[in-house]
Design a protein that fits this description.
By secondary structure, the chain is of the alpha/beta class. 30% of the residues lie in helices and 24% in strands. The chain has ten helices and twelve strands. A hairpin with a 2-residue loop joins strand 9 and strand 10. Helix 5 packs parallel to helix 6. The longest helix is centred in the middle third of the chain and has 18 residues.
């Protein structure tokens, strides 16, 4: 267990933006803003869950946090180092070993021609400075840490099940003893029983190693099981951010309410969500609130003015004009 200063965020994100140019055959069709003005902190030892529809910008945020994508605007501060701006690459190099990423598809995340020992030790090899014996010992330690036998080290990825492959990818993420891991739909490709096992493993590792997670998922039940706080994304914007209990027991934003209402419940069957239509094109965002064309509670102001993310209760932030008068 790491000695953590629980009063200081390990990650600070302020007004984060990410744009993509959209076009074909040299013709520019416009700018797609995948993430728009996102702000949040991640505290030591906590799991920040991120939920939203496909295309809402969840994975884009995760990739920017670990340096896989540059930010178009805003600021990311990791462990006291600002990794955005002109000196961002140099700052990121100082803390990169403390950040890791667990991808959704473990099979695609591994080279099928590499033995598991080489897959897990890849970060060690890149960083350098390890003897052959220390490397082998570390691989064996990591395999056992994620619930696999050290004798598996000489096998190839195709010899394992999907759940075992995800454990191997997690072992690789732990190779350099990181502090923060982005889990991008880390259990989405697994069946329900394997999901539960991997979730339990992640939570156990968090307790033992003092890890912090950004846990990206579309399954609200999974997010509820693992998260400390939850951020709800819609069309690249954070529309609600709250402690887990507050979000599930008293959701404020109409979109969050619709997501929770859509969860099937055995006693009533499948509920139809109180929201219609499709997510608006983020190439042509509405002038006001992005949810306005679909929101059953929208009024005139929603059409012209985008709401700011503001605190409406202790630790509970919402971007909705319904709460501007509270």
């Amino acid at each position: 267990m790491k000695d953590l200063d629980t009063s200081t965020p390990i990650i600070r994100v302020r007004n984060l933006k990410r744009d993509f140019k959209v076009g074909s055959r040299g013709k520019d069709k416009g700018i797609l803003r995948a993430v728009n003005d996102a702000s949040f902190d991640v505290m030591p030892g906590e799991t920040l869950g991120v939920v939203g529809e496909s295309g809402s910008g969840k994975s884009t945020i995760g990739r920017m946090l670990v340096g896989l994508l540059p930010a178009t605007g805003g600021e990311i501060e990791l462990f006291g180092e600002t990794i955005t701006g002109p000196r961002g690459k140099r700052a990121l190099a100082k803390v990169r070993h403390r950040l890791q990423f667990v991808f959704q598809d473990p099979h695609a995340a591994m080279n099928p021609r590499m033995r598991i020992s080489d897959v897990i030790a890849e970060p060690i090899d890149i960083k350098g400075g390890w003897s052959r014996k220390d490397r082998a010992d570390r691989v064996a330690e990591l395999l056992e840490l994620v619930g696999l036998s050290a004798s598996f080290a000489d096998r190839f990825p195709h010899e394992f099940s999907g759940g075992q492959r995800q454990r191997i990818v997690i072992a690789r993420a732990l190779a350099l003893d990181p502090d923060f891991i982005v889990c991008d739909e880390a259990v989405a490709a697994l069946d329900v029983s394997m999901q539960a096992q991997v979730i339990n493993l992640l939570m156990d590792l968090q307790d033992r190693l003092g890890l912090s997670y950004l846990f990206i998922a579309h399954d609200l039940a999974v997010v509820r099981a693992v998260s400390t706080r939850i951020a709800v994304l819609y069309a690249g914007e954070i529309v609600e951010l709250a402690e887990k209990r507050d979000l599930y027991e008293d959701p404020k934003h109409p979109y969050t309410q619709a997501l929770l209402a859509a969860i099937p419940r055995p006693e009533v069957g499948v509920r139809k969500p109180p929201i219609r239509g499709e997510v608006p094109s983020i190439l042509d965002r509405p002038a006001g609130c992005t949810l306005c064309p679909r929101c059953p509670r929208a009024f005139d102001r929603c059409k012209t003015e985008a709401p700011a993310l503001r605190e409406v209760a202790p630790g509970h932030r919402v971007a909705c004009h319904l709460y501007d008068g509270d």
